[in-house]
Amino acid sequence: MNLASRFASVLRGRTAVIGAPYLWLLVFFLLPFLILVKYSVAEMEAVQPKDLIQFKDGLLQLTIKLSNYVFITQDELYYKTYLSSLKYAGATTFFCLLIGYPFAYFMARAKATIQPALLMLVMLPFWTSFLLRVYAWKGLLSNDGWVADLIIGAGLDQVLAALGIISTPGKLMNTPFSLVLGMTYTYLPFMILPLYGNLSKMDLRLLEAALDLGATPWTAFWTITVPLSKAGIIAGSMLVFIPCVGEFVIPELLGGPETLMTGRVMWDEFFSNNDWPLASTLAVVMILLIIVPLALFNKYQAEAQERRT
User: Fold this and answer.
1) In a domain, 7, yes or no
2) What is the number of domains present in the chain?
3) Could you report the per-residue pLDDT of 162-214, keeping only the tens digit for each?
């Protein structure tokens, strides 16, 4: 095989390797997103949206309706819904980081022989249906549930009521507390795993050098461990925050009827009001809101890669 043939073979192989992920994104992300965009600018008929391009009276007509995008900026309900979704997603991300970082740190510093077992414990909830785990929390937080009895018995419900997290003492279900608790429990592994992968690769000689130079363990942790784990913190936060913004099942089961989340509002517009264009508009705007932090994360990753090289 001559040099030209070898080069062509390598080029074909590289094209196939690079092209496969792009083809996957094209088929399973870009095309469905374009369908949503199409529905969002269409007019609704009795059953489904009209086609954007129609042939009528010998003319080819293109009809684009942008009023839905104007409407969601003027209606207070959708404005509050987006803010509420971002608030609950941000709170969930914060608590996942607060709980997940110490756990990931402990896993990374544990003996190599028990790290696989700890990793298995983190991944064990994935062996059970997501829906069953959420339903389990519904029973645990309801009246006579042992978690509810523990919280009420410790007087923590009084504190939650004073903070405005629950409406009245003793009522834990269908509140922001039950919603954030359910989402934190569900998405906690998505925070722990990236942090563990990052912390387990850290060079411990840096901590030893800091301690030899007189730094306290707490100072060494904040000045060395936390900055070096920034990539894991950002990756875990994105993995938690992004799905929480559009979460539907947990707000439906644990949040109660008064909880405003984008997923629930889209469900109502699709299936209750049969307004596909408005629901698609909400979905498009939500995706655009999610793309912004993703772009920032990719920019940070690229800058970090350039600094390492």
Assistant:
1) no
2) 1
3) 888 888 888 888 888 999 999 999 999 999 999 999 999 888 888 888 888 88
Average confidence (pLDDT) over 152-156: 87
CATH code: domain of residue 150: 1.10.3720.10
The size of the chain, in residues, is 309
Per-residue pLDDT of 230-242, as tens digits, reads: 889 988 998 999 8
- Which range marks the domain in which residue 163 is found? 67-308
Q: Model confidence at 307, in pLDDT bands (50, 70, 90)?
A: low
| pLDDT at residue 184, as a whole number | 95
- Do residues 173 and 257 make contact, with C-beta atoms less than 8 angstroms apart? no
